[in-house]
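Recall that a protein's primary structure is simply its ordered list of amino acids. Everything else, from secondary elements to tertiary packing, is in principle encoded there. The following example makes that idea concrete.
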Amino acid sequence: MIPKIIHYCWLSSDPIPQKLRDCMGSWKKKLPDYEFMLWDLNRFDIHSSMWVNEAYEAKKYAFAADYIRLYAVYNYGGIYMDMDVEVVRSFDELLTSSYILGLETKKGVEAGIFGAEKNNPFIGKCMDYYKIRNFVSENGKFDLRTLPNIMYEILIDNYEIANRTSIKIEEDAHKMQLFSPDYLTAKSCLTGELMITENTYTIHHFAGSWISKSQKMKGKIYRFISSYRLLNYIYQRTYKKLKR
């Protein structure tokens, strides 16, 4: 059973932005009897991991947090959440499983919220990825592969993946069942469109502290083009009706 522990990480010396505090306000409201563990420089020794140390020194805090979140869940059990995740309802009915995983996209695991029992084998495999790698390569380039894609690759290399359609599941050491995006993500990271359904537990708002300015601009352009196409479609339909 997954313990009632919520892990979250903040490595920057900057104050926590209000929009993140607003999301975190939903945690204590919906999860009043859970323990909250902040992973910062006082709790985690960044020198214990080459990856974390190099990412931290480069001020790529989100990439340093990728390993720390895995470490926290593996060693303590519980649920990790990014601070831009809004809780819609309690996780209590999910805790009877040995893990909680969902898809963010068709080929990306939702790494902003996931949970597991202590010493979960899959989480351990994800940690192993970072143990044998440096964040900064010999030529000075950063390893900017995101955790959602890394988790997905580890899944397809080691497990049969299935769609999780019910709260209670039959555990299988060779099979991992993942919730569809509306359960844990419930929002498009590209368009910002909400995907809330009766299944939704959390909404990941993608504050995107790790996203570059160019990537954020691409998202804005995509949203603009999508809006333009919709408006153009409406205009063409209206114009044709007026011509009749």
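The chain has seven helices and eleven strands. The chain has two domains: 5-211, 212-244.
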